[in-house]
Amino acid sequence: MKKPPSSFATLSTSVNDKGEHTPRQRQYAFGCVLTYFYVERYAKVLKKSNMRKSEIFNTVLDVVAAETEVSHACILSRCKRREVVDARHMLCRSLMDQGMTVSDVAERLRCTRRNVEKIEECFDDRMKGGGRVFEFVFERITKILRKRFERSV
User: Fold this and answer.
1) Whole-angstrom Cα distance, residue 83 to residue 75?
2) How far apart (Å, rounded) are the C-alpha atoms in residues 90 and 123?
3) For 49, left (φ over 0), alpha (ψ -120 to 50), or beta?
4) Which residues contact 134 (CB under 8 A, 6 or more apart)?
5) How many Å apart are CA 153 and CA 147, to the nearest integer?
6) How far apart are the C-alpha atoms of 81 and 106, rounded to whole Å?
7) What is the enclosing helix (H) or strand (E) of 51?
8) DSSP conformation class of 2
9) In a structure prediction context, what are the per-residue pLDDT tens digits for the chain, which is 153 residues long?
10) Rg of the chain in Å (alpha carbons)
């Protein structure tokens, strides 16, 4: 069995008789790190707000639809027009910023977790490639949502 990388050794303290990490222990160690990341990033907003996840989703969807001038049905559809895809990316990022997990967002958008993770990964590239209008609209959405969710606390 190959020795794990040095960065992994700091994550897990349990080893087998030969001093090597087993695959199950490696998987568990990385699972703990990811779980900690999600709890650290997303639990903050949900603890502050008394709203249910469906209310958060509907509020964010309303704001994104109003600011991007794309209908709810188009955002939730499989449409591939640039403005619709941009609106969908803004919706996903805004929902993640409001404390929803990847699974929750994927369930409500009726897509896979991987699709949502991919949207999250390429959001910054889309922001750079979308020009100043994309940034301006997303900033407005962020400001409006911040005001709405501060009032609901």
Assistant:
1) 9
2) 8
3) beta
4) 86, 126, 127
5) 10
6) 20
7) none
8) P
9) 555 554 444 444 455 566 665 554 444 444 444 434 444 444 444 444 567 888 999 999 999 999 999 999 999 999 999 999 999 999 999 999 999 999 999 999 999 999 999 999 999 999 888 888 999 999 999 999 999 888 766
10) 19
Amino acid at 101: T
Q: How many CA atoms lie within 13 A of 10 on its CB side?
A: 3
The token pair that represents 81 in the structure block:
């027009």
Q: Which two tokens stand for residue 87?
A: 């609106």
Query: Rounded to the nearest 10 degrees, what angle do helices 82-97 and 131-152 cross at?
Result: 40
Alpha-carbon span 120 to 115, nearest angstrom: 9
d(CA 144, CA 2): 52
User: How long is the chain?
Assistant: 153
- What are the helix and strand counts (H, E) for the chain? 8, 0
Q: Helix, strand, or coil here: 1?
A: coil
